[in-house]
User: Fold LysR family transcriptional regulator from Bordetella genomosp. 5.
Amino acid sequence: MPRPIPPLNPLRAFEVAARHLSFTRAAEELCVTPSAVSHQIKVLEDNLGIPLFVRDTKSLILTSAGKAYLPGVQEAFRQLVQATYRVQRERQVPALKLNLPPTFAMKWLIPRMKRFMTRHPDIDLRVSTSKHMSDFARDDVDLEVRYGRGDYPGLHAEPCLTVAVTPVCSPALLTSGTPLATVEDLRHHTLLHDDSTYDDVSNPDWATWLEHAGVSDIDTSRGPSFWPSHLVIDAAMDGLGVALAKRPWVSRDIAEGRLIEPFPALTLPVQFAYYLVYPEERAADPRIQAFAAWVREEQVAEGQPPPLR
Assistant:
């Protein structure tokens, strides 16, 4: 039968005392009295049947056995620390990996993300952006935001953000001398185009919006185009022209005065919406539940409840 290892407390007292070569300093580190350290060392020596220290009134010296024993004890404690760290790390909640459309991440999530971090400090978000749909069986993604009708066989799809489009521009554009009082005035301004493409036909362009506004004689073929969508919004803020933007992406910029909405009554609703999408078997994942609940709360708090499920 192998001999049992000595008790842990005496071993710890030995390691600290040997490192400091002082019972007094060891006692300070261990938050006990020097006599308690001395007692623990005596217990260890009795257990091993051999002295580990030479004691005198002025110094504490390791015996040859103590010198030989110390490296193995220190290595054992290092391994205990590492093993404890590994098991605690494994118990921690893993990061929630999100794949989002670039502008959803830039214009909706990031401005609100601090509120999620405050609400759920134990959940780290790992955000990536792509216009392509993830393959959940292959890609390292927990949840994805998709733009469409929500028809994704085999996947849970929860509507999270309705969409409407509206023209926006910099307030400085209205002081340039060129009026923008009516839709017809757009013929005198540069139209900025969102060149995002989707598999659906619901993504409005300037021609669609102008038809909605009842105007048909404005040339919509001219003007610079941008992708992703937040670039056309930045171009509008820089005074390059008038952009047709999804309302959720510009609501904060309008509220804070970086953009204006010259024709708010002519906002055009879009059939498609943004959906939180993930495999059905992940529905009970507490990280996904927390993120989905937070998105719903954000929409309600802003007076924009998501579409009915």
About this structure: The chain has nine helices and ten strands. The two ends are 66 Å apart (CA to CA).
